[in-house]
Write a sequence for this structure.
């Protein structure tokens, strides 16, 4: 998930260092936007080193690229911690007087605001009215913690600890507390020690589904078969190669399983021990592999099972998907066509017992819609 982290000018800005680290350890990409006053409390080099991105808070730099709009539109989630009383007032009034405020107003992402200030400022009627205004607009303003504040006084107004912030933001996600298994990639069945029967699956869709499930709060296990790219962060990865290895790795209980891997339909009956030499003719005896998702569903009938149906242009996508839904005991089938193999774009059909829906676009966007549909159905 692409997280835009706003930091405003309060003493609690030092806690942002732990928050950046925590977000990145969960696998999120973090763009930090401190205000000018925030940089009086915490240095830019520290924030750049922890986030992995250069920081430029000047609203008028690189105007041609319309940075404030780009930052807002690219964010999947916005967190502001700490949020000062002044920031709450400007946000409630829609006063876009710096890069952070412009980015927030240009974004449609969910916004979580964590105020931190002295107790009297938090209880001030102006602050309370600003908070009410923001909450009416759908912005999530989190009550500050109670504890020691700057100086010798204590009370409500303290910024929560990093673990509490992360739990607040992600613990209420649609798939929080759910375990999800995603298989991705293509299996390889040995012919000899160097050759194999494989397929063209890159594993991109499975990886994007795993990331989308992670971003909705699920505990994700990715069973990856010969991926072209590195598995995403914040996800347990089990690397496999063959059908047999895939079956063993995926055989664990879960709330949801998404069978996005392209599994070989056949394997060589007796792989050659060594390297086959070139000859005029070689006969390979192929035997059918197991139907892994049907077998899994028979052993785990309470799991929400999602399978994929891959068809060519001559086949009826809806009919094939519905048949697979019943034959394999699945809750949902994602139907797609062979033209999507190896591409960043795809066109799919989500088929369940009650409905069917066509979705198309970049695989990352389609994956998010698939996972959101799963979350709605298991809610």
């Amino acid at each position: 998930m692409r997280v835009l982290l706003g930091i405003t000018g309060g003493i609690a800005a030092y806690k942002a260092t732990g928050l950046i680290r925590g977000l990145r350890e969960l696998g999120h990409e973090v763009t930090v936007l401190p205000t000018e006053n925030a940089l009086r409390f915490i240095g830019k080099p520290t924030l750049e080193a922890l986030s992995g991105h250069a920081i430029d808070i000047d609203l008028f730099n690189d105007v041609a690229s319309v940075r404030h709009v780009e930052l807002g539109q690219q964010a999947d989630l916005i967190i502001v911690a700490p949020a000062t009383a002044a920031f709450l007032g400007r946000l409630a009034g829609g006063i876009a007087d710096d890069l952070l405020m412009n980015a927030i107003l240009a974004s449609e992402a969910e916004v979580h605001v964590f105020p931190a200030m002295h107790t009297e400022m938090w209880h001030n009627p102006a602050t309370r009215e600003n908070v009410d205004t923001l909450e009416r607009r759908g912005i999530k303003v989190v009550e500050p913690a109670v504890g020691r504040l700057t100086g010798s006084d204590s009370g409500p107004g303290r910024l929560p600890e990093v673990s509490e912030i992360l739990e607040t933001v992600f613990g209420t996600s649609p798939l929080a507390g759910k375990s999800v298994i995603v298989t991705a990639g293509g299996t390889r069945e040995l012919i000899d020690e160097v050759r194999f029967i494989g397929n063209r699956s890159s594993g991109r869709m499975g990886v994007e589904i795993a990331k989308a499930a992670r971003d909705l709060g699920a505990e994700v296990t990715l069973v990856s078969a010969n991926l072209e790219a590195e598995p995403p962060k914040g996800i347990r990865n089990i690397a496999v190669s063959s059908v047999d290895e895939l079956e063993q790795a995926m055989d664990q209980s879960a709330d949801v399983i998404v069978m996005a891997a392209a599994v070989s339909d056949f394997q060589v009956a007796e792989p050659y021990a060594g390297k086959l030499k070139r000859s005029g003719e070689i006969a390979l005896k192929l035997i059918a592999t197991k139907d892994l998702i049907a077998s899994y569903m028979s052993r785990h009938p309470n799991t929400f099972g999602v399978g994929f149906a891959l068809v060519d242009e001559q086949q009826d996508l809806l009919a094939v998907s519905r048949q697979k839904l019943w034959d394999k005991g699945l809750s949902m089938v994602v139907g797609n066509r062979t033209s999507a193999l190896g591409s960043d774009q795809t066109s799919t059909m989500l088929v369940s017992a009650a409905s069917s829906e066509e979705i198309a676009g970049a695989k990352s966007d389609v994956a998010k819609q698939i996972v959101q549909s799963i979350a709605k159905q298991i809610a």
